User: Fold 7-carboxy-7-deazaguanine synthase from Rheinheimera nanhaiensis E407-8.
Amino acid sequence: MYKVNEVFETIQGEGSFTGAPAIFIRLQGCPVGCSWCDTKHTWEIKPELKQSLGDIVIKTAETEHWAAVTPADLLQLFVAKGYQAKHVVITGGEPCMFDLNPLCEALHNAGYSTQIETSGTFDIKAPAQTWVTVSPKVNMAGGYKVLQSALDRANEIKHPVAMQKHIDELLQLLQHTDTAAKLIYLQPISQQQRATELAIAMCKQHNWRLSVQVHKYIGIS
Ligand SMILES: C[S@@+](CC[C@H](N)C(=O)[O-])C[C@H]1O[C@@H](n2cnc3c(N)ncnc32)[C@H](O)[C@@H]1O
Ligand SMILES: Nc1nc2[nH]cc(C(=O)O)c2c(=O)[nH]1
Ligand code: SF4
Ligand SMILES: [Mg+2]
Assistant:
């Protein structure tokens, strides 16, 4: 069973799939504790806030409610909702607290491609064809460390930045990582102008790519 905070169909707003229609599955629970996290309502798993998947999917605001679901429940929901997207993004919370193999395999068997958004602080349990986006989290409140195995598995590394120390941290992580076949993105934190200017300058300097959170600029989820 997976603990799900929300399910919705939208446009991927980050990283290399930006612009692609996608179904998002947001899993509940994250102990990493990023001070600027934009999904703090997914951090805690409160037993008293358990709901049915039917209630979760009609949410109109961000809440801490969650539902326990199987891959089959999710596939059934996609059909019932009439979702047309063929790409599924599994995010959170920290999705890699779960074994994502059964979920991704069920999605692949039903004709969907899959992508995971992860902080790289937990073992990534997912099939080889799943696209893995690692957004490394260094020195956050929860005390978790980025795993080298997660950086090695990443298809893209999407680093959140607001100040020079974040660039230095990324350079440090990349020193030990073979980046030949990976896409490297800087993502300004919270659309701050100074963060965006820094990201643009550093992308030019290091030949990295820029990921702005497109969905926030156009006001969609
Ligand atoms: C909410 S996290 C969930 C997945 C996973 N826990 C992670 O951190 O990658 C999804 C993405 O949003 C990014 N993110 C979270 N808060 C942000 C913010 N305020 N500004 C920019 N990116 C943010 C994360 O770095 C990550 O790439
Ligand atoms: N549109 C849209 N794109 C996204 N890409 C990554 C997201 C996330 O929260 O993981 C996200 C999100 O929340 N919305
Ligand atoms: S790891 Fe992801 S979900 Fe967890 S606090 Fe950081 S940004 Fe938020
Ligand atoms: Mg988001």
